Amino acid sequence: MKDVKRGNYFSLRRYLTSLQLYSDENNAKDEKKREDGSGASGEEQITLDMVAASLSSLSSDIDAMLLEPLTSFTDKMTIPASILVPAVARHLKRRKTGEYAVRVLATLLQLGSVVGDDSFGLAVLGHSIIVNDDGGADEEEKLMNSDSTHSIQSLSDRRRGATNNNTSSNHNYVKDVLKVLEWNGNDIRTLSAQEQAVKVIYYITDPNFIAGALSMKESLEEDENDVSGGSGPVDVDAVSDEYNDRMNEMIQIDIHRAFRSMLDHSTSSASPSLQRWATACLRHLITEDQRRACSVAHSSSKYESFTSQLVSTGGVMILCSLLNSEDGETRAHATSALEAIVIATREIGLALHEPSGKGRGLSRVGRGTERDSAIVDAIISNVGGSGLPALAHLLISADESVSMMGCSFILSLISPLLTDPRGSGRTLQQCSNTATSTAVGFEEKDDGLSSYRNAAIALVVGDDTVQGSDVSCLPSLIEIVRSGVDSSSWGGRNKARPLKVQVKAAECIAAVALAVGHVIGMHTDQSAYDPTYVRAKSALEVMEHERVFDVALQIIKSDSHRSLDSSRDTPDARLREAAGLILLAMSSCSSVSSSYLISNGAVSTSLSIASEPGMLNAASTVRGKWASKGLCFLEAATTLLIQAWTTSTEQESDSASSASPSLNLLLEALNSGAVGLASRLVKTKVTLKSHDLAYSQLRVKIAICFLLTSMFGIANKSHDNNDVGASRLYSAIDADCAQFLASGGNDTGVRTDLVGATLNLLNATLPYAHQFTKEDADEPLPMVDLSEACLLAAGSMCGLADPIGVHSTVQSNDDAEEGKYSHLRLDACTMACDVLTATKPGQGALLPTVLIGAIGESLIVPTLRLSLAICHYGNIDLCGELSQSGMLVPVGDILQRALASSDQYTFSVAVVLVKFCGQCTVVGSSANGTVETLKNVINALSCVLALSENENGSVMGPQRLKELSVLKYESLVALEALSANDALQSSIATTVLPALVSFLQHLEYSYSYAEEIEHEQVMLIGLKTIQRIINIPSSTQSMMNNGIVSILIKIIEKGDEVKNKLLQEVSLEIAQSIAQSDLESRYWLICSGLLNSLLSMLGESQVTARTSQLGLQNAGILLSDLTPSTLSRFEPSAKEELLHRVVTIFCSQRTFIRRLIASISDNCDAYGESFVFSQGEGAVRDKAAGILFNISTLLLVHGQEIGRTHFNDALMLNDVSGSNMTVATACSALLDAFSDDEETSPANPDDRSFYFDVQLPTVKSYLMKGLTVSLNQAMSSLDSKPAAEGLIKRLQLPRTCLNLCRSEKLAESAFRLFEDVVLSLPIDFVGDLILCDRVALVTLFDLVTGQANKVPQLEYSKQMFAKLLGNLAKAGLLPKA
Prior knowledge:
The protein has 1377 residues and is mostly helical. Helices cover 66% and strands 1% of the residues. The chain has a two-stranded antiparallel sheet. The chain has a two-stranded antiparallel ribbon with strand order 3-4.
């Protein structure tokens, strides 16, 4: 009656009769009666045809309702859903009526969705609820007034169900709908029915519908609980599990079965409409699957998400193939479904993640998981090929919603690169390390983001194995972002896309850039042919070509994207932050981008943005709570500074260039307030109570420490520019200190504010960093990374100018270069040393603990770098403290691992540390094992010296040879320093000496060393090492056996070709030490040719005073054995051979002999340049006289005729015209120098006898002959006669000759000199010389009488002496006497 009252004269109830009363059992009985011929019952039976007709008419009426105003729905739909839906759905089981029934259900659900009535959907699920209608009567009243027996039964069922605190439960018809989806056939009617069935599933899995149903269910239960009350303890876990079970019972849908059906129908090409609806339904199913999996994640209830089967069942492949569908809506639904799959799988994985026991950890929203990474891989393996063009077309669609959908899909694939801290966690470390250290055992572990990085790269370069995959999504994304940026350089600009689309596109580009930056940043020599790296390089080329960095820079510079309140989450703020991330990533991997950004003020702009109020405190809406909004800008500025710092070595190799890009960038950063910003942030306290906030603050501090690392590194390089960088930097620190003190700061000291604060931060983090690596958190606080950054900053503050991986300053000088700020660096070194060597009660120093990797393997190389700075720019006391800490033990292990892994940088740093600290090691006061470690290091270094330059049977390439030469040089420097330690000299002499000698021998023939290493410098260091161990027992003989003498000979033979005269000096000192050891060594030195080379060098070269002294000392030592007592120890044949060899040597050393004569005589330049000693002329004369006397003896006594000839040639200057007086002067000087004093004679009786009986007479006799000849020649020349007379007078020659005539050995030579020279002088000249000397006159009378006259021709000599007296008498001179 109510239908009539409402004007509904054609009520839908007229269809209920056939729909409700039809029974398969009654219909079957009537059919049987007809077959038996007994006839049917008197009542007309309802047949399937009638049911089908009713359903068809009902469907038409409901379709008509959709075309009418919504207000008519409540008037015409008078049958409750709990009655109508069961009446229709019961006919789904039969195919004849099922196609009509499913259409009615689909139309009802569609109508309910339009008007917001969920009762039809609940009825399909088998549930009904009590609701009030407009007239105030409830559904129960309607059922009681109904004449339907089915309705009365339904009400009875509901009342019975109410006693169980449950809503009324009828039959669940979802299974019947799913059976329709599984019908066989490809005809139009079947496809149409299946399309309607898909619609039914679509509406009952609508997330809004399910959320409303569950909310209603929960509200009803709360009301019932309020009525029933409760008391006693409650098991929370049990209640939670029970709640999940009840919620799942509310929505009883076989999701897995529905998934399979939808995937099957989404491939249907016969019905585009069916395909479209099936694809759209997948998204609802994914959402419901996610809800179920997440709801039971940590309960005893079990539900296996279908997303884990999407790859194996081909679901992902199917959806990816639909991206190429000709139907636009299908493509859109497929894209949405794929996005939903990725997000749902990610959220399920996060829900299944076990929470930490402490309840700490980063918010994991949006973080990647192992589950969704497999989905991403599967999607990219399909989309990255032929599906990439379709995806690119979505992005460039004029429909903003389509473009937005494409951006969202791409972002869903790669968003963990933004939201996961590991996506950009070590960008700064990768930029600051120009070489990856493998010697410390540190390997970059898989961070779980490789799938997303591969996806990001694939979106740019596609899959080169698939045709058409060269299409890139990047240009489309860039064009979206670029549309909102005004720039005339890009020409005409399309209409600006909505800001939200720009934000999505910018975030996609940022994720892609981070992926490319990470892959390229992790590049090593071994990854040059890695496919991922090659594709990343290709992606980078595309990004550079599209000038991504330019677009990002324009965005952050645009005033339209700035906000007065940085804490607000606005699209403009998100866009600017995404642009900052792009700059960060591009500057970390692209030199083109870095150069452009540096030249266009990106550093100052980024620092200005980071300095805005609240930028480093407000949580990022792009990356998550673990990062602040300004972090990316701070990291971008830091990265650019690091890039300028690390590349400045190559760009600024021309020292004459006044323009330094890195220095200019440093000044730009200082002008932007970098020091003040760093000072404020370094001293900011970390809030450890909030994990997310603490993580954000630590990341800021890490960026600041890297900023300081690069700034001080650039400043330390600025010494070529008058220390402009250091001056400005320390001035800025002073200004910051003054401002801090003026504002009431308590700091004392001028520059310890920033430097001291950084080192205090290191002291506060390094000892406790290992505790945070073990904390039970989803993502431990990056305390180890902060310690690493502090170590690097401290190393630069202590004076190092090079980053990790660059060791350009070859450690050839022991002391650091003094400079204007050296005292500040020393203060920093002292503070850093205190931090590293600090000890706690019962514990050792911190430094060895760090170096063994106990705190973190990533800290080893930065700690080595800081230790290197302390040693190089500190003092010897700091080196001693480091050594006493026990650090040499792990350093020795690191050195050997670096050598085994060809890690040149780590090896070089370890070698330098061994060099500085090893020489400070004292046995007994150093840590246990230090000396043994140093001995092992010595053995390793000796192996380095012995490395061959041949590799696999062929000579190494130039670069490899250069690297090997540097390794050998650094090893040699360390060995030279260690040789100063007495405790290690024996080990060096035993282990190193053979390899060292072999190395030096090879060095003489190899010039493949690096240009910065001087050949002579290498040789000098090696010889110094030998010099220090030369006095070790048995080392001399070992050196002789290993050929050290040949090296010394080659160095000595070079003479003036040797630029470094110290090299010759050290060589002579070594030769002297060998010569002083024993007779055999001296004999070997003479026979090996060293004496000949030595004399040649002294005779021909321009030698220093020290070289002259050492050379003459060596010559004197070698000649000292040529005495009778020594020669008697040789066999006769060996003796003759030795004498013959020595005579032969001196026969060829005329120049050397003449230089000796010049050193003894005054004004004898014709003999050559005299030797010079630092002690003065007296020392030179004595040493030269002794050597010349021995040489004269050898040539005149043992040299036979050839020896006398060569000595005469050297003495008489026959090749020099007009040298008579010079020869006469030299002869007279030699006669005076060769003393016959007993005190200077040999101590051995045999040697003394030989000296006085043979050597001295022979030499003096020959000198007097030479004096006779030269004076005669001089007297015969009018030019030289006056000089000759002057020499005779000065020498008191008459008196000398008369005295020597009384000598048995020299009488003959003296008489000939007297006869030829004195007697030929004018009588008055001779008279003045003799008569004025009483001794000479008495001697003359004695010789006339024959008394003591030893002249062999006695009578003749008497006559000559008498003749002289007669001439004196005739001249009237004798009476005066």
